[in-house]
Amino acid sequence: MAIEVSGLVRKYGAHPALDGVSLQVADGELVALLGPSGSGKTTLLRAIAGLEPLDAGRVTYDGQDVTDSPARQRGVGFVFQHYALFGHMDVFENVAFALRVRKRPDAEVQARVAELLDLVQLGGFAKRYPDQLSGGQRQRVALARALASEPRVLLLDEPFSALDAQVRKDLRRWLRSLHDRIRTTCLFVTHDQEEAFELADRVVVFHKGQIEQDGSPREVWRQPKTAFVLQFLGHVNLLSGVQGPQGWQGPGGLGWSGRPQGPAVAEGPAVLGVRHRDLSVRQKAQAAESDWLATVERIATSGWRCELQLRLSNSELLTAEVSCDELDELDLRPGDAAALHVRHGYVYGA
Amino acid sequence: MSRLNSPRNPFAVLAILTAALILGLLIAAPMAMVVGQAFSAGLGGWWAAVTDEETLRALRLSALVAAIAVPVNTLGGVAAAWWIARFRFRGRKLVTALLDLPLSVSPVVAGLLFVLLFGSQGWWGSWLQEQDIHILFAVPGIALATLFVTLPMVAREVLPLLQAQGSDVEWAAVTMGANGTQLFWKIVFPRMRWAVLYGVLLTGARALGEFGAVSVVSGHIRGETSTLPLHIEVLYAEYHSQQAFAASSLLVLAGLLALVVRRALAARLPQGAPRGH
Amino acid sequence: MAMRTPQLPGWGLSASVTTLWLGALALLPMLALAVQAAQVPAERWLQVLGQPRVVAALGLSFAGALLAALLSTLAGLIIAWVLVRYAFAGRWLMDAVVDLPFALPTAVAGIALTALWGPEGVLGRLCMAVFGVQVAFTRVGVVLALVFIGLPFVVRTVQPVLADLDGAVEEAAACLGASPLQVLTRVVLPPLRPALLTGFALAFARGVGEFGSVVFIAGNLPGRTEIAPLLIVTRLEEYDYAGAAVLASVLLGGSLVLLGLLTRMQGRAGQA
Fold this sequence. Notes:
The complex is a heterotrimer. Chain B is mostly helical. Chain B is built from 13 helices and no strands. The radius of gyration of chain B is 22 Å and the shape is globular. At the B-C interface, helix 1, helix 3, helix 4, helix 5 and helix 7 of B face helix 1, helix 3, helix 4, helix 5 and helix 7 of C.
């Protein structure tokens, strides 16, 4: 089922949780709603489900306006962040709930629940109660329960945030393969950039109630549209300066005239973003003309990855990331002088 | 809270009105009656009734009984709470059951228990008569009956608190060399003082207001063994409504004080709401 | 030699104080009742319990407490619901009123209720005029007084459980297609059952033995509006210790048994 929302506004008092959000999702897509907490992504998910009253805007399913229809008529499968399982019912009755409230015949209920429990690999758990299950198992019951009514769309609110790292990774992979199998349109909310990129066909980045960028993971990574998106994706140095006719210039004589990724920027105050991995480091002796001079302040390592913290002459601190093998070759130590070269840079108007 | 119940749907309005009606007619109205009747002869009338000779004597007796019940049951209650909460021993279940017992017993039965012990046909009845010691129909009997009825009130506040607080802090103190006395006065008691305070207020209010048990053991001897509630009964029976309710207002004040303190202490005590007596 | 489990100080003192305190003030008096009741020969038991007056009094106390507990549970659920789920002007006042019966000593409550619902009282006359029903000095009055004291128990037991319910669970049920009524009956009420049962039990136990709040409004007509505790008092005044002990044992035993049953029902329901 295709979903379209246009101009959604939802205010809490004076504060807008959704500030004019429009989005289209094609049938069968797996879309990640990504952003920091309070950015509006969960509010949008709930608005699509019909759990959130709107101050303005329309929601349509397959062209049909459902804005005024209540949640229970929309046919959505919603999986809550903390699962919201019915504690007084066993796993079987939880999954069967959607069928029971529609008064389906018992034989049908039995068959469908068995099928769903097999799908989520909880075949022998029918008689257990939620408080006897682990987090990952509860999550799968919540999914099975949501799927029971054959929903037109599956909405998941931070489905893995309450789980251990390893369980999270396993469930992520499992969800992707499930989606590939059942092909239901699926939207999920996350604040974890890695998770969004690994799972989704499309990533929508939220900031302060609005959509900052909407594209495939690859697009979003290579062409972040705004400084916020670049910074949210992490591991980036941001420097304030000015965009002039010769390129970007920062305080203390810093300059960069390379071609920026992304749209052209007008002259005036501008921010230069350089990913940690895009900052290459050499010994001062081998500096090129356009390189920046800096002193190595600290070196940290996490296995194969090494991180250098470098202090510029204008006393700004930058981080560069290299493989530790590279670092060994460079033979740099804290206190040494180094030269920095910006391989790719992003410039945004401030 | 669910977003599904919009605050002004008709079912909600009906429910709110029903609740208001029930509470208003059943509970607020009698309270209003007490206050209204107590002051129906104005402030002067209230004062006159409250300072009446016999009323004061009854009040003094009730206060005396409360002054006995509170310390004894506080001491016993704190000791019992400590023993039950911090130690495992055989008979723990029995002790806990005994502690809860007075609450399941009708006040009249409570009075009966002491009649069976000290009444003229009781266990020690004849011996007491020989010694010319009066338990029943005298202050000691009233005190004992009141002690029974208010027995677990302090313990019931302190015990859950001790259980909820855990003993880590106490162990830390012990490993640092505190002996029993130091442990109690410097660590344990300060942490439980609000629960003790509330328990004391509950005990005091109930001790002042106990009717059924005292009715059985006191003999209703006016001026001598009439506690305040018994005196109120007499006043009412003799159609002195205003005086009866004026005297009642004193007891109601004590009860309200306990309630107000409870609300103020809500954050510091583990249970969610005021519990009955 | 194995080391003894280390213990906090104070075992000796707390144990001895508690034993003395409970022994003298709780155990001993209960033993007196047990012994006295045991000493009454079986025929006397049957004779006492066979008296129509006794049957009527016990019946009124138990049945009245049962009915009142049921009414309290229903009313208490409505009131707890309103206090938790709706926001409205004056909610704080309603919440405070629920506690008032805890502040009133039983005798004061008793005479206040009688003054209010008696033939001369405001509500008593209103009830007579509108419904033609007399409240004071009838069984209706007995039940009314018992609801007065039982209602707060139910409200305060149900309220915290209701407040703790996760709103997400109701939203989940709605998304799964449940109508508001279905959400109520299948998802919201079931978790409340243990609390309702507990509240009912507390109200019932309290009501069976209640004296001061009921004895004024009841009217105390032997065989019709005489409650069991009053009959016990009467027997004591007649120096009939045996009869009083029998009655007391039935009263106490009956409520303990019922409480035990309810606790077991709770346990089997699978909820803590």
